[in-house]
Amino acid sequence: MHRQIAVPGGTLTRTRTPAVSDWFTGEGDDFRLLGTRCTSCASVFFPREDVHCRNPHCAGGAALEEVPLSRTGHIWSYTDSRYRPPSPYVSNPELPWEPYALIAVELESERIVVLGQAVPGVTVADLTVGMEVEVVPGVLDEGAETTWTIWQWRPTGVTA
């Protein structure tokens, strides 16, 4: 996907590229995390599993199918990232570190917990365990030609 950005003297086209391929798809209300489901035992996995069922009690083997996951869930736990992580995390040491909230969400239908960042502007002071949140597209980093995209969690009813 390409996005046109107005700059002095013309426009710049940035390619929107998922930071991790095949983990999410879509835009806006169609944005979904992608998991896999074992066709034998119905276990659901995120991150996706493409080799074999991770359920140790499943005798079914490697029959897995891609499934879109629930768009909503409830906060299971949360914390904030107040310091720059050490290597191998990549960040520009020339720029100031901007804290962000991390949210562990139990998905509505699948009942599995998925970790992700909160949308910009949402802090731990805005969150409570059990609060309903929805998955939305977010931006990890913007380079000269590429916008690296991720998923983020946003409290339902909040527009940002």
Which strand-content bin applies to the residues?
Answer: over 45%
Q: Biggest sheet, open or closed, and with what strands and sense?
A: 5 strands, mixed, barrel
Number of helical runs? 0
- Rounded to an integer in angstroms, the radius of gyration calculated over CA atoms is 18 Å
Which word captures the global form?
globular
Task: Write down the overall mean pLDDT.
Answer: 88
Total strands: the figure is 11
> Strand arrangement, largest sheet?
7-8-9-11-10
Distance between the termini: 21 Å
Low-confidence stretches: 1-7
- In helices, the fraction of residues equals under 10%
| SSE series | EEEEEEEEEEE
Structural class: mainly beta
Would you mind describing this structure in some detail?
There is one protein chain. The chain is mostly beta strands and about 160 residues long. It is about 0% helix and about 50% strand. It has no helices and eleven strands. It has a five-stranded mixed beta barrel. Strands 3, 4, 5 and 6 form a four-stranded antiparallel beta sheet that branches. A hairpin with a 6-residue loop joins strand 3 and strand 4. It is globular. The model is unreliable at about 1-5 (pLDDT under 50).
Topology record:
Blueprint: E1 2-7, E2 10-18, E3 24-25, E4 32-38, E5 44-45, E6 64-68, E7 72-81, E8 100-107, E9 113-118, E10 132-142, E11 146-155
Parallel strand pairs: 2-11, 9-11
Antiparallel strand pairs: 1-2, 3-4, 4-5, 4-6, 7-8, 7-10, 8-9, 10-11
